[in-house]
Amino acid sequence: MQAKWSVEDEPLPQWLEELEPQATNIRRDLELEELQTLLEELPGIFERKFEQRLQPVLEQQQLLLAENERLRAQVERLLPQPGEVRLRFPDKRPPSPTRALEAMPPLLRLIRGGRSDVGLLPIGEWEDPTHR
């Protein structure tokens, strides 16, 4: 039978034991260099991540600015120019009860008790301008 031989059973040579602390220091220095490199890359990583998240916000802002410009141009087109006369035509739809109440003279509003559901229809002969 043959005995099993392993490297772990033999003692380390003296020169190898002397180099072990140097190897440990070199490993530690390499790890520190790797960590330093990662730390130097960290601001760039954060900046790229921030730009990725900011991009949709900037696109939305551009869309809103374009919409704002379009609406401003539309308002500008619709505003009367200096010296321009615009005619106002009465609404073709019947006035709403609240608008009708606001349009009534104050005395008529008082007579009708401030009710908006009454509308503008005459309630007596003295209110009817067509009555003679």
General description of the model:
By secondary structure, the chain is mainly alpha-helical. The protein has a domain at about 15-80. Helix content is about 60%, strand content about 0%. It starts with 13 loop residues before the first helix and ends in a 21-residue tail after the last helix. The mean pLDDT is about 80.
| Main sheet properties | none
Could you give the count of β-strands? Answer: 0
Helix vs. strand class: mainly alpha
Helix segment count? 3
Low-confidence stretches: none
Report mean pLDDT, rounded to a whole number: 78
Our measurement of the CA-to-CA distance between the termini, rounded to an integer number of angstroms, reads: 142 Å
Q: Over all CA atoms, what is the radius of gyration?
A: 45 Å
Share of residues in strands: under 5%
